Amino acid sequence: MLDSNTIRARFLDFFRERGHAIIPSASLIPENDPSVLFNTAGMQPLVPYLLGEPHPQGTRLADSQKCVRTVDIDEIGDNTHATFFEMLGNWSLGDYFKDEMIGWSFEFLTSKEKGLALDPKRLYVTVFGGNADAPRDDEARALWQKYFEAEGINPDGHIFYMTTTPAGKEPNWWSPGDNGPCGPDSEMFYNVSEKDLGDMTLAEFMAADDRQDIVEIWNDVFMEYEKKDGKVIGKLAKQNVDTGSGLERVLMVVQGKNNIFDTDVFVPIMEYTRTITDDERSARIIADHMRTAVFLIADGVRPGSADQGYVLRRLIRRAVLRAKGKKLARLAIAQIVDIIAAKYAGVYENITEQHDKIINIIDDEAIKFEHSVEQGLKKFERLAPQGAISGKEAFDLYQSYGFPAEITLELAGERGIKVDMEGYAKELAAHQTKSREGSEQKFKGGLADHGEMSVKYHTATHLLHKALHIVLGETALQKGSNITAERLRFDFAHPAKMTPEEIKRVEDIVNDIIKKDLPVTYEDLPKEEAEARGARGLFGDKYGDIVRVYEIGKGDERFSIEFCGGPHVEHTGVLGHFKITKEEASSSGIRRIKAILE
Q: How far, in Å, CA of 14 to CA of 150, rounded?
């Protein structure tokens, strides 16, 4: 049976042999985060290059990207959802297109020697059926047909055109939002049921999808169009390929399991979490949330009251609530971290390197949460004499105290108290809709906003980072940032509140560099040469053999040199006047600066 390390290696080796540079996973925290909390897809760190910037390692790339998604957090514990996952992906930046990609997809999925050795008779594919923006993708359909026929398989029973639904959904059309590169895609599904589904009609295929008899395991996106303000305005200057294959889903298929928690990345964690709860879904939630927490902490996130820190805090607290006695002892935390570190040894070494720190951070947060649990139980006791708990009250227990509905139901059941779950569902649905809309808006902004002011603020964050090193010392390392067209927000490591004098010094240094109107330039260099020149990276990220290095100033006037994908202004004089509007705590040991350009 192929395990996770073998499949990850096979995927990367397969594309290395086909001329792809293997790039390391970016941090879970987007570099110079332009308004999205986490990297949620493999293509996200590569957006500048998909929009036309040349990548320092060429036009063919492949990687396994760490991702976190929490929009469907309440689905965790089912068969397929996870908050942390790895996305296997390869990209063509104006190089090959449909012919090569579809051939490679079929080969990797079915090859016994170099791929996943899947049975082509259990494979099904959907292609774009056409709409007002673009014609039906007959080219992709013809290519898939060729490969199915070569295996003696009736293509009409395995390839399906998908068209826009009455609800306005766009099947087989991928777009990051209202702006940016987009295009038709081919989605690959595999029969994971015990039945031989054979040839199917479109209706039978969709029914099988609803039953989860088939699972999507790969998606080839053919980016050849551009969208602006929600409308497709034409074709891109270059055709790109963007693929994505979720490793956990692939493991489920290859290892013949009906859920991701029985695959090798979860089995050792699950064996332990089943000892700290009697409920299988709770064991799954603890395993998932703890794995995600470990990866987030290793990438620099700390529990807090907002943004990434809030997500981490929520994950840890949800895990605590699922353990026996609603407590997660330090011994249990240490054991789980040990298992996760061992599982990913040799792949993500920052977990091993920060092993003890990760345990301490999770343990501290778990201890703090005990008080909140007590407050939640007190709130429940105040509601209990009513004899019933409304949907709004149940949702408040969830939102304010971290009590999932199942916990409220369990406590209520012990007292014979009714809970308005229909009302709770309405409150939750309204909250999820609002959260999803906010998440989607952030994602759109992150991909599309390469406007003039956002680019200026991006350059200003580099000036700020260097100025903080000058004033506070080299330990004031960047821990996150958020850039919009109106302001920048910058998180950095520092144990104490900055004094007014320190803030003024930082402002003066940045404004002095702006007045000098220094040039901003970049070079693609071997990593060793870049480091020899003094370039620094962010978030403890891994980098490829060739890196892009931005310099502000030249020679004796060089102010900073950092690894960065861009984009930046061409010279500092266009930035205007830099002003820090707020300096505050973000989380323990992390300070936050908000600043504007006037």
A: 21
Q: Do β-strands 214-228 and 180-191 pair in parallel, antiparallel, or remain unpaired?
A: antiparallel
Q: Model confidence over 328-364: pLDDT tens digits? A: 999 999 999 999 999 999 999 999 999 999 999 999 9
**Residue ranges matching CATH 3.30.930.10 in the chain:** 4-262
CA distances from 278 to 79, 241, 432 (A): 18, 46, 29
The dihedral of CA 248, 254, 256, 258: what is its sign? Answer: positive
Q: 182: which strand partners? A: 225
Q: Across all residues in the chain, what is the average pLDDT?
A: 88
CATH 3.30.980.10 spans which residues of the chain? 452-597
Q: How far is CA 420 from CA 330, 413, 426, in A?
A: 36, 12, 10
Give CA–CA dist 540/544, Å, rounded: 13
Question: Who's near 112: CB < 8 A, 6+ residues apart?
Answer: none
Q: Is 298 left (phi over 0), alpha (psi -120 to 50) or beta?
A: alpha
Report the predicted TM-score, pTM, of the whole model to 2 decimal places: 0.74
Amino acid at 392: K
Both tokens assigned to 21: 């540079």
Distance from C-alpha of 135 to C-alpha of 117, rounded to nearest angstrom? 33
DSSP result, 313-377: HHHHHHHHHHSGGG---HHHHHHHHHHHHHHTTTT-HHHHHTHHHHHHHHHHHHHHHHHHHHHHH
The superfamily CATH assigns to domain 452-597 is: Threonyl-trna Synthetase; Chain A, domain 2 (3.30.980.10)
- Tell me how far apart the alpha carbons of residues 458 and 452 are, in angstroms, rounded to a whole number: 10
**Token pair of 291 as six digits:** 């794995």
Angle at 592 between CA 587 and CA 597, to 5 degrees: 165
Beta-carbon contacts of 427 under 8 Å, excluding residues fewer than 6 positions away, are 391, 392, 394, 395
List the beta bridge partners of residue 571.
519
| Residues 436 and 462 sit within 8 Å (Cβ to Cβ) | no
| Rounded Cα distance, 578 and 504, in Å | 11
Question: Are 394 and 405 in contact, with CB atoms under 8 Å apart?
Answer: yes
More confident residue, 380 or 167: 380
User: Which DSSP letter does residue 536 get?
Assistant: B
Q: Do residues 181 and 447 make contact, with C-beta atoms less than 8 angstroms apart?
A: no
Using alpha carbons, select from 221, 191, 185 the residue that is nearest to residue 209: 191
Phi, psi of 14, deg, nearest 5: -60, -45
What is the residue-wise DSSP string for 416-433? T-EE-HHHHHHHHHHHHH
Place of tokens 């294959």: 245
- pLDDT over 90, % of the chain: 56
Cα gap 29→302, rounded to integer Å: 12
89 touches 15 (CB < 8 A): no
**How many CB atoms are located within 10 Å of the residue 579 CB?**
13
- The CATH fold assigned to 4-262 is BirA Bifunctional Protein; domain 2 (3.30.930)
Alpha-carbon span 123 to 109, nearest angstrom: 9
